[in-house]
Task: inverse folding
């Protein structure tokens, strides 16, 4: 009988997978999920690492740190993609909101069934 070794995913791998899933689901039209991803992972990428996280707590100076370094760069890649997506997504949303608010009356009153607005008699002032 041959036993095969199946490596268990580490916590770093799980975080990379979560960040990747946040990005992919955000591509389905949920830019707020990109913002949630950035807010969730930002402290993990830009926070201070303790001695235990770097492996120096127990004198492991010869420890191979390529695994965590690669995982962190992979996590950074997905978080940066989410950041760019969130900025572009919210920028387009706010541009559309401003454009629509400035132009809806010029388009005629055919758009009124699709929006809620006060009658013209209410806009006469206080």
Result:
């Amino acid at each position: 009988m041959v036993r095969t070794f199946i490596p268990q995913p580490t916590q770093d791998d799980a975080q990379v997978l979560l960040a990747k899933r946040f990005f992919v689901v955000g591509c389905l039209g949920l830019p707020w999920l990109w913002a949630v991803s950035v807010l969730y992972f930002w402290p993990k990428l830009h926070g201070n690492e303790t001695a235990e996280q770097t492996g120096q707590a127990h004198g492991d100076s010869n420890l191979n740190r390529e695994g965590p370094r690669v995982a962190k760069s992979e996590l950074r890649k997905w978080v940066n993609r989410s950041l760019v997506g969130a900025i572009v997504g919210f920028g387009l949303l706010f541009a559309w909101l401003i454009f629509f608010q400035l132009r809806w009356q010029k388009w005629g009153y055919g758009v009124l069934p699709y929006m809620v607005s006060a009658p013209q008699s209410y806009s006469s002032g206080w």
Residues 66-103 form the longest helix (38 residues). Residues 55 and 64 are 9 Å apart (CA to CA). DSSP finds four helices and no strands in the chain. Residues 9-47+66-109 form one domain.
